[in-house]
Write a structure and sequence with these properties.
- The structure is a single chain.
- The chain contains eleven helices and two strands; from the N terminus they run αααααααααααββ.
- By secondary structure, it is mainly alpha-helical.
- It has a two-stranded antiparallel ribbon.
- It is globular and about 55 Å long.
Amino acid sequence: MAWSGVVVGAAGSAQGDQFSNVTFFVFGPLMMYLMHPYAQKRSRYTYGICALFMVIGLFSMYFHMTLSFLGQLLDEISILWLLASGYSIWMPRCYFPTFLRENRSQFVCLVFITTMVSTFLSFLRPTVNAYALNSIAVHILYIVIQEYKKTNNKELRHVIEVSVVLWAFALASWISDRFLCSFWQKINFSYLHSIWHVLISITFPYGMVTMALVDARYEMPDQTLKVRYWPRDTWPVGLPYVEISGDRKNC
């Protein structure tokens, strides 16, 4: 079966993988708190994104505790819904299919229907989920690269750069764990999947801030968004979030 390799790869480090899922329950509520002013101003669905991130951590923990097909399926479906939700909230209208005429409500309906179909098909053909996740991830990466080329905003460019690098390292650790499992077992190193959990957890706030900044260029042109870092802006490492510093004054 398509998922048996994942189970075999996870078996040697199930306890470590469960522990690494703690980051989902730390960063999720923290980002919900830090992004509260933004969510109140732009969209309260931002809270839902953070909640779904915690749900991913919960299902991932369940999967690594049971190493079951159902656990993996729930884990992947929750990731699918997180990406689809972010898609619905922050996708710039200029990237909508032309037949939608930049109508966000219709776009949300289209994303919802597509995600529902993908969720249903994943129970019939589990490999469908992998294609759906990869397709959304690649398209988001394409949009981020396009926006990177368009902007001269140093903060946005920096957040995009860090997001892409973190995502690349996370993806590399996942691919290595998935396809080089036997090699890592031979040298008694079974922590790559745990590293994937930690890296993707750190990527989440950066990706969230990236999409919020990109969205603000189109949907909040009269607002000034500033990137802040928790716990201190001056620290070399911190958790990014956005702060709405006030209305832009026109001369």
